[in-house]
Amino acid sequence: MASPALSSAQYDYSLLQSCGEDVFISANVEIRRPHLVAVGSHVAIDSGVYLTTAASIGDYIHLSPYLTIIGGAQSTLIVEDFVTIAAGSRLICGSDRFMGDGFTSVTVPAEFRDTVDFGTIRCQRFAGIGTNAVIMPDVTIAEGSVVGACALVTHDTEPWTVYVGIPARPVKVRPREKMLEYAKRLGYE
Q1: Residue 85 is part of a domain; what is its CATH number?
Q2: Which is the most buried residue in 31, 58, 66, 145, by most CB within 10 A?
Q3: Residue 185 CB partners (closer than 8 Å, separation 6+)
Q4: Is residue 125 within 8 Å of residue 82, measured between CB atoms?
Q5: Parallel, antiparallel, or unpaired: how do β-strands 161-164 and 169-173 relate?
Q6: Which tens digits make up the pLDDT trace of 12-49?
Q7: Domain limits at 52?
Q8: pTM score, whole prediction
């Protein structure tokens, strides 16, 4: 399972729901619910990644250092093939509403808590998320879409479009031909 090119200590893959070939998961990754996480092939999950949700991680994926994916067992992260999520990004799959209907701490009994919205973040194939970007619940990063560093994404993106800013806004179209050609050569249509 472990990539021969990467030699640091590794996560215990047997804890995962499933795990493909050529996978590197750093030993100091924290996956709160590994039985809800399926990992494809040719995947690198670097040091300091923190994951609390269910997750489906495709092939040829890089989850960079100190990425945070939160939302609890009722939330889901779906990462399709050929996606990179850069260091320090935050994917908020579920969140308290913070509207004063109760406390916002997981340490408080449920009957005294604020409403929590659980959702799904989907990163479609060929997408990229830049360093320190924040993705909010129920957002789809569309095929080939790129989110720039430090952007805040609160709505779905359009395919093959680059987004930057707070809130994230489209700034240009991204070419797709070479990526589609390379994916086809690797056996992905």
Answers
A1: 2.160.10.10
A2: 145
A3: none
A4: yes
A5: antiparallel
A6: 999 999 999 999 999 999 999 999 999 999 999 999 99
A7: 13-185
A8: 0.91
